[in-house]
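User: Round two. Same drill as before: sequence, then structure, for each protein.

Assistant: Same drill it is. First protein:
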Amino acid sequence: MKFCLKWIFIGIFCTACNIQLDYNRIILAQIGDLSINSQNFAWFYADFLLRSGVADNLLFRNQFLESEIDRKVLLLVGDSLEFNKVSQVQEKMVIAEKQLILNEYFHREIFLKYQASDSLLRQTFKKSKIKLHARHLYCSSLEVANQVSSQLSAGSTFEELAKGIFRDSTLAASGGDIGYFSLGDMDPDFEDAAFALADGEISHPVKTSRGYSIIQVIDRWMEPMISEQDFQLHKDDMNAILRSRNIQSRKQKWTDSLAQTLQIEITDDNLHQLFDNKATIIQNDFHALLDSKIEMKSKFGKWGISDIAARLNRLSSSQVKLIESPQKLRESLRGIVVKEKILQLAQSKKWYDLPEIQWNINRQKEDVLIFYTIDHFLKDIKPRLKVDYTGLLQRLREKVSIQIHAEKVQELKIIS
């Protein structure tokens, strides 16, 4: 969709809010049989204030309430048409619930619990006091990057090569000079490589999130006075930077370790047999394999062809496309087992039963129904524009009884 569904798209709940909420379960608006109470409204509105940095005011409250009313209207319509009974919707609801729980587990059990060593914190703090002046040559692939690197070794200059590499006229004319930057300004992998270089040194091709870069540090500026007191004041900030930078690698290491404990086993013959029949399995047509001895073993027990097929059928189309080889299939099956274990671990955590977690799970499931309802009414409109969505809401709101208690919205106290 090309239009913005405003708050419908917002699915992140802040579990560490610094905003104090003063509310009881007061009904702020009644939409048919559904209602918006002050507690749920305040939870989500408080999160909006924190993330946006805006100050609470009555205009924002009313706009936010109108968006929540729009959600309820779409939910009512979806329920009345029994979209919640559609198998596709039910399957997506299950996926949405599991994904939220997985995200919450990684956030609480890995991200928030990360604590860098004192030596790493000090090293990062020193980097934060340095400004590097660098230039680079960008390449879309490692093959091209190696060619450019060879040209530099053979005597070509950054100025010469940049003209044929960059579409940006400034970078092309300056030899790829990106000026001065500090910790946190660039791609983490780019920064790590740059900080490791001596002035004038040229790196080997460095893989970043966008491709490959060959970097040269021209010079650097260092803050002359760095005190222990300053370090202690900013130690938590350094840990936050490292936590954000290392989360993906930590998640990977943790899941790899968990996978080892689960003792996942499948023979190469079984794996190739599954891969050769991938298309029919995804189409839920695997009767020819029912008599086979295909199985996968793990701490969860033995999964036969029916168990494996049922789980592969829950993968999204994009996940299925990634299974391009027996090895990729092995990785997918391994990932399925690991996810099931994480979901099991999550349910044993105290935070799993917190009201805000269960509320947010329910909201994610509602969003599935909302998007399906929108698709139902706007399926023949491509591209979909904001005016189409607005017009749809106006028509649907006319069919629903809506009562807003404006005085209750105004009286609600949300103190930052």
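Second protein:
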Amino acid sequence: MREYTTMVEITKNVHTIEGITHPDPRGKVFPYLFIEENQDDLTLIDPSFLSQLPILENYLLDAGYDIKNVKRIILTHVHVDHAQAANAVKEKSGAKIYSHWIEANYLAHNPSYNGPPTTQETIDKLKKLGISIEELTKKYGSFEVEPIIVDYPVSDGDMIGSLRVIHTPGHTPGHISLYYKEDGTIFGADSIYKHVFGADGMYVSAPQVSIDPVTALVSAQRLSKIKFNKLLMAHQDSPLLERARETVEKLVSDSIQKIKK
């Protein structure tokens, strides 16, 4: 049975891919499609779960593309809900995989990444929400990420097509965000969350899922200094499409004040 997706064009260069679910029913996960000036030159940001690859492929078809138009796969970090489908997308499309050079080692399991949340922590949390392991396995299969070999390890400030790499560690050591200067858009990945996982409002990546929450706050502060007006997050109820920089600046300020109290 064909799994249908909702067409969401943020700008002429950016699509958010709707329809990808998350094991935690209180949240969603959003891969993004970036379209270069050559309309057949696509960048896929965080392809998410392998089990839901058909949703992603159907979105491409509905948008008038084929998976072979994907030339680049950017992995913002190692976590399963962002990276698991990367090898399958590469095999189907021939695309090259990019990530920060620190994260590239964890993606290759050299060394294995042991930061939060571990697979067991995720399973335990979902059990508390009343979700059975059998149900999860049926829908998502494994929660492990097989080794992924990154073709192009990148550093802060590098360009991937038209997107500038911003190293935003804290959630994971090699977590990156991406900046499209031409229309003031930041792809924040898991730097910042908005109205998901039981939280009211926006928040910087939480300690339960971050290797270094203080560094995550510093990374959010760094983002707030960049000239942008759109913030697209991996976990959100909706993107911020106006005055995003001012909103992030206030979030960082409020978060720092909470720490000081």
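DSSP finds eight helices and 13 strands in the chain.

User: Perfect.
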